[in-house]
Specification:
It is a single chain. The chain has 162 residues and is α+β, with helices and mostly antiparallel strands. It has a domain at 2-103: 2-Layer Sandwich (GMP Synthetase, Chain A, domain 3), CATH 3.30.300. 52% of the residues lie in helices and 14% in strands. It has helices at residues 2-23, 59-68, 70-80, 96-113, 138-161, and strands spanning 33-40, 46-53, 88-93.
Length: 162
């Protein structure tokens, strides 16, 4: 039961802070901030708010902007949530998206450097022309499939109606 309540509180804080950043806070330093997730401590004394900056930018300026509006956000959360303790907000930059984009860039570059298919395979890789892949029961697999297909064709709609 406690886990569901904690998750609900975290989600509420997430929605409230994200909404305030979009609608109420006019500080240009936090204009491109996206809230990723919120993790509250067991006693709700601390809420870690993970954020990312859309389009990059000066992370130090963003951090200062978030710190300057922290009190305003806590007051707004206090009005919405009925908790004995209103959590202290700790803003943490989440670099997961940056790392994912860097990995994607590396993968794209690797695909650009790959030789076109058919020129060179990996060492030890055997293709159909080397006798791999079709010798072990390839004829046996085709026979039953062909028979099933023929039986399915002969029954067709007439066999189902009869």
């Amino acid at each position: 039961m406690e886990g569901k309540h904690k998750a609900r509180v975290e989600e509420t804080i997430h929605q409230l802070v994200a909404g305030m950043l979009i609608r109420k806070i006019k500080d240009p330093r936090v204009a491109n901030v996206s809230i990723i997730r919120v993790e509250a401590s067991r006693d709700y004394s601390v809420a870690k708010i993970y954020y990312n900056v859309i389009g990059g930018g000066g992370l130090e300026d963003v951090r200062k902007g978030l710190e300057s509006c922290k009190g305003f956000m806590r007051n707004a959360v206090k009005k919405e949530l009925r908790l004995r303790v209103i959590p202290e907000f700790v803003f943490i930059y989440d670099s997961t998206l940056d790392r994912a984009m860097a990995l994607e860039e590396i993968i794209v570059r690797l695909h650009e450097e790959e030789p076109p298919a058919g020129e060179e395979g990996l060492p030890g890789e055997a293709g159909p022309e080397n006798g791999a892949g079709g010798e072990t029961g390839g004829d046996d697999q085709e026979g039953p499939e062909g028979e099933d297909a023929e039986e399915g064709d002969s029954d067709g709609p007439e066999g189902r109606d009869a």
